[in-house]
Design a protein that fits this description.
- The complex is a heterodimer.
- By secondary structure, chain A is of the alpha/beta class.
- Among the domains of chain A are: about 220 residues, Rossmann fold (3-Layer(aba) Sandwich); about 120 residues, Rossmann fold, CATH 3.40.50.
- In chain A, helix 23 runs parallel beside helix 25, helix 27 packs across helix 29 and helix 30 packs across helix 32.
- Chain A is elongated and about 95 Å long.
- By secondary structure, chain B is an alpha/beta fold.
- Chain B starts with a helix and ends in a 7-residue tail after the last strand.
- Classes of the chains: A alpha/beta, B alpha/beta.
- Chains A and B meet through helix 2, helix 8, helix 10, helix 11 and helix 12 of A and helix 5, helix 6, strand 9 and strand 10 of B.
Chain lengths: ~725, ~180
């Protein structure tokens, strides 16, 4: 990552106004969004949106054609182009042909995308933004930091300074008064403007209609008062059917601002009369700007299902810390990273794609059902393809792809001493063996890894067998978790096998875009884990479980490798996470908890991969409660702890405040123990508690349950 | 549906009234306007856009109310405090109003005024957006306007503030005599 980029992050996370405003908003948003969706089957709704938008993305040409012909037959002029420069030229020509001196605009990200304002201004045309947020940033000479709330990064004091200059009067920071000032200042601009420019929230092919949504009422004025109206619409806004407008209107305001509907929705089909009786000059520009290329890309076509609600920004634990400007000048947040890579260039997304911690929060709320984290991973993969892996990483991956060497080095590290204060190389191993970072202590490498300790465990002779996939963290940092797991499964009547040739699951490489390395790891693990006869392959690390159950397959798919695909599927079918299997065994009566235990208050942290990829949330909670713990839920229990594998090494300035927030939420419950199912989260949160000096026990569920299970009578 | 509409509309700060007869509704309207300071001066006058509520009413009587005007121009609309129009439909599940606003006068009175008074026939209440869209075809309606509560913003520090570019109050008056009952 570039220094300049790093600096922009540091500046943002230290901007208390910004993080305060975004933090407060994100908390309120979650509650309000849930309320707005009450009584609505969100999965069903987004299924329909994904389907109709996906259909449109596959038929962009046809729908553009149909839209143009319908809109033209109702009297609009339609201009279609792939080229942002041609859009600018067209708008300027219409303006010049009609002797336009001033333009009023309602908010349009497409015009931001093509940097329209400076172009028109250079040609001597006065351009006024009328959306309050856009007007504020226009006065401040800034760019929007959020697709829906462009000035969310500014305080009322900053706004009052800007407005005071504008009206030559010292204003206070009273918000209703500031809003009044905006109304009074902009009203004459609306009335005087020769041309109105808007975007379009939806474009309907079968009727040639455009749909505009605002809360302030500015789009109504922009489309009604000036004699000319130009709507600039990206072709991803096309839908086929008029009836489907209702489907999008149901989701967009709920997801964007937690409203049932925006104050104003206008559906415009052809020109209407002006007050003087003349007809409005209505121009609709359908802009491609690489959207068709995107639609032709099997992976990125999905991104065209976006309805621009920005909910992916609102739930992002990173966005709420750094705000939009770190992402760039136009589109921000998760989807913004993807749009920037396409509408601008792949290279531009090089730094910002690294901001994604892959927690999956955005994927859960996206009304277009876009797998945003997956697309960001794909950007990473393509960047690596284009630019190659940096030398240092390359060396690391060479090691990771050689299990004996890799494990040998880990063993050497444990002998070499702790903490590791020297040797840059070892610190960058994907086992996150960094020296102390701010706010977190890291565990020492275990003197004896699980693979050695396992040999000393004497297991009873049992008929059924499971294979245990430990993963690097349990194997080399937390072997006691592995021992607990063996004890539990023995009690349930399973002998545990530990195929020695298992190695890193490949997640660190994959999350850095090095898919070839991940694929090699996958093959090694498939060979190892399928070499033994076992009913299940169990893992107590959700990231590893996801790798075994999903990512080996998708890594092969991305690389077009088929050789190991059927084995990868076989392994995926056998793979199960710890809590799901244990819950099943308890339900089947193969495991029994000690009776009448009163173990006190506990809180549970949902690990990202467990909750959002494996969809496991209730199993560990039920097990812990059955064991005798009293569950006290923490605020934002499913928000990422900031670990994200090597993320916490690359971006400690972001990871640290996310961790601090998590620690606070844990402490606020008053629980003396916090449980979780991921050794990575244990590493992060235990390290944080340790630095913090708080005496809250941070435990993996496997450790807590091992103490409470007895052999079933069966 | 009326009750659901009322809850939703009031939930977004609209004011909702209901009268059986045009006469009762008119009494309310005039009383409301005068109570809010209706006068024949800029920033105090009211513009009433053409609508079926006005059919068979003696406009000469109405025109005697100082400040109440029936000719809608851009200039008058820009200085009117009140705008009165008849909306065609209401949507129960979001508390919204809808109108075929192809005529510019309908939009001028409802977008430039500070207080928008919307008269709605009671039988214009529909359950939701799909019901509206199935009724109104774009071929017959160049400008379909859907209004939900007064103009609002949260662009400064996410603080909800009413009345930016559009009306700061939306007063909705259902009238059975225009069709339908509750």
């Amino acid at each position: 990552m570039g220094n300049e980029f790093k600096e922009s992050i540091t500046k943002a996370v230290n901007n208390a106004n910004l993080t305060g405003a975004l933090g407060k908003f994100s908390e309120a948003y979650k509650v309000n969004r849930a309320k707005a969706y009450e009584g609505i089957d969100f999965e069903e709704l987004r299924g329909r949106i994904a389907e109709l938008k996906s259909y449109a993305a596959s038929h962009l040409d046809e729908l553009s054609e149909q839209f143009a012909s319908k809109a033209e037959s109702s009297g609009a002029k339609v201009f279609r182009t792939n080229d942002p420069a041609k859009v600018r030229e067209y708008i300027l020509k219409v303006a010049q042909d009609n002797n336009v001196k001033t333009v009023v605009k309602s908010k349009s990200m497409a015009t931001e995308e093509i940097h329209l304002n400076p172009y028109l201004e250079k040609a001597g045309i006065e351009v006024g933004e009328t959306d309050l947020g856009e007007w504020i940033i226009q006065l401040a000479g800034q760019t929007p930091s959020h697709m829906v709330m462009p000035a969310i990064h500014m305080t009322k004091e900053e706004v009052s300074d800007l407005f005071s200059k504008e009206v030559n009067e010292r204003l206070t920071s009273d918000i209703p008064r500031l809003v009044k000032v905006a109304r009074e200042q902009l009203r004459p601009a609306f009335l005087a403007a020769d041309m109105g420019i808007s975007g379009g929230n939806i474009a309907v092919a079968e009727t040639g209609s455009i749909v505009l949504m605002t809360n302030e009422g500015n789009a109504r004025l922009v489309t009604s008062l000036p004699k000319i109206h130009i709507a600039l619409v990206g072709i991803e806004k096309l839908i086929e059917k008029y009836a489907d407008v209702a489907t999008i209107l149901k989701a967009l305001p709920r997801s964007a601002t937690a409203q049932l509907l925006t104050s104003y929705v206008s559906i415009i089909t052809g020109p209407t009369p002006n007050p003087d009786g003349s007809m409005k000059g209505l121009h609709i520009i359908l802009m491609d700007n690489r959207r068709s290329e995107m639609a032709a890309d099997p992976k990125f076509k999905q991104a065209l299902q976006c309805i621009r609600c920005a909910s992916c920004l609102n739930v992002c634990p990173i966005f709420r810390l750094v705000g939009g400007h770190v992402f760039g000048k136009v589109y921000t947040g998760g989807i913004g990273t993807i749009l920037t890579a396409w509408f601008d260039e792949l290279k531009k997304s090089e730094d910002i794609q690294g901001l994604c911690i892959q927690c999956g929060a955005c994927k859960d709320v996206c009304p277009g059902k876009i797998d945003i984290p997956d697309l960001i991973m794909e950007i990473r993969r393509r960047l690596v393809l284009e630019q190659g892996v940096p030398l240092l990483q390359k060396t690391i991956y060479a090691v990771v792809n050689n299990r004996k060497l890799f494990h040998g080095m880990l063993r050497a590290a444990s002998v070499a001493g702790k903490p590791f204060t020297s040797g840059k190389f070892i610190r960058h191993l994907p086992l996150f063996l960094a020296d102390l970072t701010d706010g977190r202590s890291l565990p020492a490498i275990a003197a004896e890894p699980f693979r050695d300790r396992f040999k000393k465990i004497i297991q009873p002779k049992l008929k059924e067998r499971v294979a245990f996939y430990a993963g690097c963290l349990i194997d080399f940092a937390y072997p006691e978790m592995g021992e607990s797991l063996v004890r539990i499964l023995n009690k349930a009547g399973y002998e545990v096998l530990f195929p020695e040739d298992q190695t890193c699951c490949g997640a660190p490489a994959r999350y850095n875009g090095a898919y070839e390395v991940a694929a090699n790891n996958a093959v090694d693990n498939i060979k190892a884990l399928l070499s033994v006869d076992a009913t299940y392959v169990i893992s107590a690390c959700p990231t590893c479980t996801v790798a075994l159950a999903h990512e080996f397959i998708s890594t092969f798919e991305s690389l077009g490798q088929t050789e190991w695909m059927s084995e990868a599927r076989e392994l995926a079918n056998k793979t199960i996470d710890f809590s799901t299997l244990v819950k099943k065994l308890v339900d089947e009566g193969r495991l029994t908890m000690k009776e009448g235990q009163k173990l006190g208050k506990i809180t549970y942290h949902d690990s990202c991969h467990l909750k959002r990829t494996l969809k496991v949330t209730e199993q560990p909670r039920e097990l812990l409660q059955r064991a005798g713990y009293e569950l006290a839920e923490m605020f934002e229990c499913d928000t990422c702890c900031g670990m994200g594998g090597s993320y916490s090494l690359k971006l400690p300035e972001i990871s640290a405040p996310i961790l601090q927030r998590k620690l606070k939420n844990i402490k606020d419950t008053g629980a003396s123990t916090v449980a979780m199912d991921c050794p990575g989260c244990v590493m992060q949160i235990r390290g944080g508690m340790d630095q913090d000096g708080t005496l809250i026990k941070v435990r993996h569920t496997v450790e807590l349950l091992a103490e409470q299970l007895i052999i079933s009578s069966q | 549906m009326y009750e659901q509409f009322k809850i939703r509309a009031e939930g977004v700060s609209a004011e909702v009234y209901h009268y059986a007869t045009k006469e009762a509704a008119l009494d309310f309207l005039i009383g409301f306007l005068q109570g809010e300071g209706l006068a024949d001066t800029p920033q105090a006058c009211a513009l009433w856009a053409e609508c079926s509520f006005l059919d068979n009413l003696d406009r000469n009587v109405l025109k005697r109310v100082p400040g109440l005007k029936f000719v809608v121009t851009r200039e008058l609309a820009a200085e009117a405090r009140f705008g009165i129009s008849q909306m065609d439909w209401a949507l129960a599940d979001t508390g919204s109003l809808a109108q075929n606003s192809s005529a510019i006068e309908q939009r001028l009175v409802s977008s430039l005024s500070s207080i928008h008074i919307a008269i709605v026939p009671t039988n214009g209440i529909l359950p939701d957006m799909p019901a509206l869209l199935s009724r109104v075809h774009p071929g017959d309606c160049a400008y379909l306007a859907i209004i939900t509560g007064p103009s609002r913003t949260a662009d400064i520090e996410r603080v909800l503030t009413i009345g930016v570019h559009g009306p700061e109050r939306l007063v909705i008056v259902f009238v059975d005599e225009l069709g339908g009952t509750i």
